[in-house]
Amino acid sequence: MFQIRTDLAIESRELYKEKTSQEVPGVEVNKEEKDNIRITRVKILDKIGAEKMGKAIGNYITMEIPKLKNPDEDLKEEVSIQLAKELRDLINNDKTTKTLIVGLGNWNVTPDALGPKVVERVLVTRHFFLAYKKDEDETMANVSALSPGVMGLTGIETGEIIKGVVEKTNPDLIIAIDALASRNMERVSTTIQISDTGINPGSGVGNKRQGLNEEYLGVPVIAIGIPTVVDAATMVNDTMDLIINSMKKEAKIGTEFYSMLEALSEDEKYALIKEVLEPFMPNTIVTPKEIDELINNLSIIIANGLNISLHPGIDLKDVNRYIR
Hints:
Low-confidence stretches: none
Structural class: alpha/beta
CATH architecture: 3-Layer(aba) Sandwich
Number of strands: 9
CATH topology: Rossmann fold
Oligomer: single chain
CATH class: Alpha Beta
Strand content: 15-25%
Order of helices and strands: HEEHEHEHHEHHEEHEHHHEHH
Distance between the termini: 46 Å
Shape: elongated
């Protein structure tokens, strides 16, 4: 059976509804509309919902910003502020909370470099707390950051690196940033997903490693992800659906051609996709040609959102003055 590749909870819900014409059992959904941002909050309540969605029990917040492909400074600030608000609502933070920010991904591959780019721009302060032997501060939080790279660069599982750092530095919270995969090209670089269930490094390119979650690391893990790629087979599948639907509209009901289109199953479509792609690009992913600029803009937005959400005495004016 052909499996649509997506890391977004909102798309897993859409796929289930397309298949069954019903809401996912064990899942609660709330939506909110703002001027430039659509927010969908998906809460997986139980094991049934987790099984149907293919995701862990917990909260998944999706911010869709269609204009994010060509953002101006006002939009960047609006998204950063909303991201900070969502993080504050999700995180049980206080003045003594120690946070480790982890930028997942490969800094040598642009679509996978979101995490490391964010880490370059976050305001790290743990060394100040150690130097001055402080447990809390009125304006700054205790924040450390790490870009562990990928196994192909280090020869070490990403999860092992992070677990070692956690055991040595004892953070109270981990925030992991990673590039994701979407089933829809329109959501690439325009959608931000926040979840409190952790993350699987490499999931965006179908190369899942050890899951980074509270069960494995011993501390809560908040995941922030943005889709930067689409699976080629998924694009072909969606294109075929559009073509078939268009041809069905043109064909007369009851004709042999219409009956053939109507009878085409998902398995048959998958077999055709596999036959066409296998000789040329069996495991290809697609990313926009402007990905360099997109990653740069997105990393600024996420870093700013993190900085103003974690540090109580810092706002966007301070961040934009010192962090570039």
